Amino acid sequence: MLKKSIEFFFEPRSVAVVGASEAPGKLSAVIMDSLLSSGFTGKVIPVNPKYSSVKGLKCFPSVSEIENGVDIAVYALPASLTLRALRDAESKIKGAIIVSGGFGEAGDAGKGLEREIKDIVRETGIRVIGPNCMGIFDAVSGLDTFFIPRTRIARPRRGSLSIISQSGSFAITAMDELASAGVGVARVVSYGNKTDVSETDCLRFLSEDPHTKAVAVYIEAIEDGRSFIEAATACASKKPVFAIKVGRRGAGSAAALSHTGAIAGNYEAYRAAFRKSGVMELDGYDEFIAACKAFGSAAEAKGPRVVIITDGGGMGVSIADACVEAGLEVPPLPEDLKEMVREGLPSYFSINNPIDLTGSVTDEMYADALDKTLSDDSFDIAIVAALWGPPGLTDELPALLSERAQGIKKPVLVCSPGGAFTRSKAELFIKCGFPVFQTPEAAVKAASILARRAPRRKG
Amino acid sequence: MLKKSIEFFFEPRSVAVVGASEAPGKLSAVIMDSLLSSGFTGKVIPVNPKYSSVKGLKCFPSVSEIENGVDIAVYALPASLTLRALRDAESKIKGAIIVSGGFGEAGDAGKGLEREIKDIVRETGIRVIGPNCMGIFDAVSGLDTFFIPRTRIARPRRGSLSIISQSGSFAITAMDELASAGVGVARVVSYGNKTDVSETDCLRFLSEDPHTKAVAVYIEAIEDGRSFIEAATACASKKPVFAIKVGRRGAGSAAALSHTGAIAGNYEAYRAAFRKSGVMELDGYDEFIAACKAFGSAAEAKGPRVVIITDGGGMGVSIADACVEAGLEVPPLPEDLKEMVREGLPSYFSINNPIDLTGSVTDEMYADALDKTLSDDSFDIAIVAALWGPPGLTDELPALLSERAQGIKKPVLVCSPGGAFTRSKAELFIKCGFPVFQTPEAAVKAASILARRAPRRKG
After folding, report:
1. Dist CA B322 CA B317 (whole Å)
2. Global pTM?
3. What is the rounded CA–CA span in Å between residue A235 and residue A202?
4. d(C-alpha A94, C-alpha A126), whole Å
5. Which of helix, strand or coil describes residue A79?
6. Cβ contact (<8 Å) for B247 and A417?
7. Are B395 and B425 in contact (CB under 8 A)?
8. Which fold has domain A300-452?
9. CATH topology for B153-297?
10. Which of A113, A110, A117, A50 is nearest to A90 (CA)?
11. Strands B135-138, B185-190: parallel, antiparallel or unpaired by DSSP?
12. How is domain B1-132 classified at the architecture level of CATH?
């Protein structure tokens, strides 16, 4: 039997919060606050036999007593109480998000509870996300069951990148980092122990989701390789899909087992599955974030040829090294282009690739060099490493670069290593919509993954 | 003829600034400001025929007219004027720092000027740093010829790490980043085109320098491999020496040539030279910074066995993967230690390695887990990845961890990925003296390089 699509989870008309409370620090209180302040337009219904109202809303003693039912119910109860509450609701809901821990990851008793959840799913056709998860953050509908307050973990703006993750902490850390990097998201799903909804269901949904233009996946273990490959292949044929598999070897593998009860399995089998389905594999958190920034806020790359523009010679050389080692190309400037770029610049500027505009650089020189090289057919991607020592660089630089790059649909990645002053300037680049990277390596990782998705990509 | 040691450059009694001026934006004005405000206790003597005083100090028309001579003269003049000024000073100075560009990196005319500088060095025995360099930032004496204002590029506090770099922009970017990471330095030297003073001279000096406990080297090209190996071997036998060689291959190699006129040469020969002399090679800027943080602010590691403590399971698994892939060991906790750590903790905590303290963590639980595992003989290094979602974590955590780790002379590396809230907490860790890393990969790079220097290191 093909299970029901999980689409209804993302734009529900009504959400019941089971165990709703106003007690500060309670997960359910955070979820209530989020739902009421995140722009979520659906109906929020608190459920708790102890209260008649929560946050000014009528509180029901149980989900079964909500007259017309609800689309989804969110459970933030102790594991031992969750099953009865779910049984009570089963005829009234389409789906449940169980954020509580204490299930399969906590030992045999918890595994028994998970088997019961699976029974309910099989018997009733309702869909379940979790347990031991964060649930859904949806920037399209405003649904937010991530139970960490926004004062601690910022939510990204609305964008076109979707993230699906077995690990809640990984997902929220990435979200927080993307929020501060100005990168938007569409749907974020943390499904934890995945008694029911898995990456396969999410990929099927995201494949068809018009709000999602790229998909990032964090995987500890996949149970049904065949379904995964099928769903991933379908999704990756339409939009970029990139994944990190953790618990690859040794200690990491053992740790994944205790984390979500997943058996991490043979890493080589995962790699083969990724290759087969066109999923781009990433090698760690750093590359995961770099890829999120790249596909979340850069244009698509048409190929692997990078032009590097900087005012710091040494940094330029480092970036060129990293590019070559990542399989990117750093071709020399064609002679006519070299002449064009050189025009009007002091003779001691080094107009090669990297282009070193030296400490005498001005905003206008940067903009000119970017415009001329990126307009040329010789390059697919620009990495701009603006070091902020030179006095000729001003706060106008990011907007000027943005203006000049606008018409050219090629990725411009900003590499901005340094301390406090530089970070304040990195904020200006972020405000202008550039993907900004703290290290040359991260910028090069982003360029490399964009190039892997390019039409004439190699390997 | 063995050249004079360059020691006098670092704690000079007097410094002449040739071309001194008060004109804002002039390199010489920045250098004057730095020398007068950086705590430098030597005498600062402006030299410029146009002025009778600069910044309230008597200004000399030329160095030759300074009665008792000076230890060093700093030249911030156009290339074309530098030679005559240096000739004029040659009998009055022990050494010169030429920060001006427009020499060998700018073409044949500049190469001719460099040959003349070499003639002066040979004829007079004075030592020359540069041209096309930043010169010296010395946190011990306060000497600072780096001509980027402190408002743009922060200077690190005084510490025990020294950095020598052919590239000025690389050196200042690293300094700026280390300043914001709370890592101190002793001596920083940028020698640019190295007509005279090279990494070899610097390594000889730093080898004997009691203020330097570790040495970071940025290399584009080495001219005299035999001297380098000799100096590096001597230095690395006394203290950790780590290096990045840029211009390794292809475009990077060509770029190095145009940057400081260096022929980057056969990368394999460099690798062999590093291995032979006990210099640890780093693979990029990110690893360079990680190593600077590690040797600049962590204890020495006695081996490669890492314990990972976190409240985010997925992050823990990622770190474990990265450790295993970097050749570090992530051994399981011995049973008796596991029991000790588990004591008093909720049953659903995952007490393995990584230790996952979950969202129910408190400051005290972190401190306990760190204290117990690091006191045990089973581990050499701790990586603490505190994710700041859990409400039980407070601003007291960094000080508490610092207090508990104090007696145990093992490295504790803090991994702190995330957004604005997390970064404000990372500042607290920095204030407590911890080396803090934005990504798991950077923390693991630091652990790995500490382990490479460990007594029972492998490979």
Report:
1. 9
2. 0.94
3. 10
4. 5
5. helix
6. no
7. yes
8. Rossmann fold (3.40.50)
9. Rossmann fold (3.40.50)
10. A117
11. antiparallel
12. 3-Layer(aba) Sandwich (3.40)
Is B152 in contact with A389 (Cβ distance < 8 A)? Answer: yes
Domain A1-130 has CATH 3.10.450.50: no
- For A302-320, give the DSSP string: SSSBEEEEES-HHHHHHHH
* Contact between chains at A246 and B439 (C-beta distance less than 8 A): no
Question: Which of B33, B175, B309, B321 is the best mutation test for A, with the most CBs of A within 10 A?
Answer: B321
Residue B158 CB partners (closer than 8 Å, separation 6+): B139, B140, B184, B185, B186
Residues 199-238 of A with CB under 8 A from B: 218, 220
Distance, CA of B281 to CA of B270 (rounded, Å):
10
Residues 6+ away with beta carbon under 8 Å from B292: B161, B163, B174, B178, B183, B216
Per-residue model confidence as pLDDT tens digits over A81-119: 999 999 999 899 999 999 998 898 888 889 999 999 999
A23 touches chain B (CB under 8 A): no
- Contact assignment for B322 to A358 by CB distance below 8 Å: no
Query: Best of B26, B148, B152 to disrupt the A interface by mutation (most A CBs within 10 Å)?
Result: B152
If you ran DSSP here, which 8-state letter would residue A247 be given? -
CATH of domain B299-452: 3.40.50.261
Does residue B103 contact residue B40 with C-beta atoms inside 8 Å?
A: no
Cis status of the peptide bond prior to B210, with omega within 30 of 0: no
> What ipTM was reported for this prediction?
0.94
Topology alike, domains B1-132 and B299-452: yes
Task: Supply B90's token pair.
Answer: 């040659």
The domain locations on chain A are 1-130, 153-297, 300-452
* Residue-wise pLDDT tens digits, A346-390: 877 888 999 999 999 999 999 999 999 999 999 999 999 999 999
